[in-house]
Amino acid sequence: MIKYEKIINSDMPIKLVRFTGEIYPYIDKHWHNSIEIVLAICGGSTAFIDGKYYPLYQNDTGIPVIINSCAIHSFGTPNTSGSYIGLALQINYDFFKSVYKDIDHIQFKQPDSHSCNQIKECLYKLVECFELRNKNKRIEIIGQVYHLIYLLVSELGEKKKDSVIQKSNKNKHRLTSIVKYIDAHYQDKLTIEVISEHFNLSEGHLSKIFKDNMDITIKAYISQIRVSHAHDMLIHTDLPLIDIALSSGFPNTKALNKEFKHLYDISPLEYRRKINMYDH
């Protein structure tokens, strides 16, 4: 079970939450206007952001992940066990814009090792600021937020592609529903025709809004979800490859091999052998 502790109060232009528990948190796909930074302190699996997966914890080290405004994202996989401690910071978009007026025209890339350390230091200092017991605590917190915004803009800011300023909320709501539908039906025979008919959209319009918002085609996204499911089954079960392929939505092992190797640069059976070798 995961416990949530709100560290920063609601009268601030930020929300800082600490997570602790014996199972990695699973948060379903959603989006919001705030800019968010998530940091795993101990344990953690992956973050899904606009069609791509990012590790939260590698080599016993937490990796801060940046979630841009209106990005569709989720965390972890259901029922993944393991102790977890983490922080999530959300910065109000309007407040960010009051500090940096050109926020509409930029987005933030994921941090490199140098930026990772700077961001982690800022998050830890924010927690320390909250624990101060003096009347200037709010000033200390806002000062740290300003410094963090400076780091984001100067180190990680880049111009938005194709001069897109902000994707419409209507499309984001629709995309969230489409993504959840694919995630729930990846084992079925999913095609653009099936999905467009379900959501009463033309195939062309569906393909365009998906690619524009997710930076990945529907076909590639479906394959990615299926491979991710197969990947988990390779690690956690002893099922034969054909059963894993069919359970993951692939028609045969040849299709699974092709997509798995495309993403991981290794065949499923070779991957399983390596995992078994490390376990022993």
UniProtKB/TrEMBL annotation:
Signal sequence, start to end: none
Residues annotated as domain HTH araC/xylS-type: 176-274
Keyword set, alphabetical order: DNA-binding, Transcription, Transcription regulation
Name of the molecule in the record: AraC-type DNA-binding protein
KW DNA-binding (keyword) present: yes
InterPro entries: Homeodomain-like_sf (IPR009057), HTH-like (IPR037923), HTH_AraC (IPR018060), HTH_AraC-typ_CS (IPR018062)
Gene3D superfamilies found in the cross-reference section: Homeodomain-like (1.10.10.60)
PROSITE patterns in alphabetical order: HTH_ARAC_FAMILY_1 (PS00041), HTH_ARAC_FAMILY_2 (PS01124)
GO molecular function, one term: DNA-binding transcription factor activity
